[in-house]
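Lab notebook, bench 4. Still working through the backlog of constructs that have no structural model yet. Next entry is a single chain of 439 residues. Request: give me the structure tokens for it.
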Amino acid sequence: MKILSTISVIFLIELIYLTTILSLPSNLDDLKNKCIEFTNPLNRYESKVVDCPTVESSLDKRASSNDMFAVNFHCGINDRTLCNRVENVFVKAGRYITATLNLKTVINVNAQFLDICRATGECDPGRIILGAAKPTRMIPNQDPDGKTRYYPQALYKQLNINKHPEFGSSDITATFNSKMDYWFEGDSSSMTSKKVDILYIVLHELIHGLGFTNSWSDYANIKALTPAVGITKDGTPPEFFEFVFDKHLVLLPSGRPLTTVTDELNQFKSNSASSPEEFFKSFAGSPQFPIAQDMYKNSTTHGSIGFLLTPDTPPNANTELTQDKINNDVVILETSFNPYDPGSSIGHVDLDTYLDSSDFLMTYTYPPGKSLDEMMSKAGSTDKTGPIGPKLRRLLGVIGYEVKDNYTPPVNNSSPFISFNFELSLLCILLTLINNFYF
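Model written out:
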């Protein structure tokens, strides 16, 4: 389903993937000391592997649960009023999250608000960048199933592990474009389809920053879907790596975990993988390639992939999930795009299923002319779960957060304190003649 309006389309294209191929170590012990660092919020493929030796440290904890998002905010424009309003949006977004989660340690964000065209030279008139946000660092962690997966630093810190890979200077690096017609809560002017509710956008992105992000993509544009790929330094075969989110993905209606598909893909052994081109050329001729092709078909078939909310009771391998089970215990993900859309597919909840529900927040499309308050009111969730709906609450709990038993709507007032958490995402606004809003 698409939402039509009378103005140009606004696409918000998100960075949710690692560089096509990363240089990673060949064994688990070495992997513990290597992290992935994103170096440019405006370039989805610009990343590097950095040393992150194990250290012992005491994490930054605070007595109040209302100030768990600390933003080092840099405003690059002369309009101090606008800068202050944007700052306050971070406060509001952070309070919605802390009304939902018991965060155990502070999340630090390095954020900028500036004229991106003037500051970076990114001035394509047909591609206006709204903003970009990435985790400063992705950290490997061995899960209970024995597999090592990558966690956004913001999430990893909530695990409260004293001995851990060395953290980056911030958890999230973010840039927002000042050259945009934003609508702010409390504006005297009405919300129109030509404006964007900045609170809605920021909160959506913060949820991605908390870990709503996956590694599956058609990296070589060959209609074959795989997790991220790592090349070892010593010439041993490359390996596919998952994010923590990927651990809980299942095929529908069979309930087969996608992590078992990763296991099958990792049966592929390449003797020559000095470049992404060489790796995928070799992979395309392997027995595992049809598996990736089949995954591509699943990723472009509506209703075929979901996030299982009951990981302690995995589905029976020989029994399909019932419709009641899917309705109650699965978040259906967005797989309606064909061809696969790396900015929308899998990385969002299914639009048809959730747009008119209290789990509306993580659909790929921004509803034109609607504010966050209007969407909550329409769904009846204002005082029940707020913008973070019941299934999204459960999902955040599954990936590792402690979710509060009850939701109390936050008191949002003007405050100089900056607080929030961003995601690994690139938001771009592409102005076209089709009339939809996309995250």
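Notes after review: The first strand starts at residue 10 and ends at 11. Residues 85 and 340 are 37 Å apart (CA to CA). Flag for follow-up if needed.
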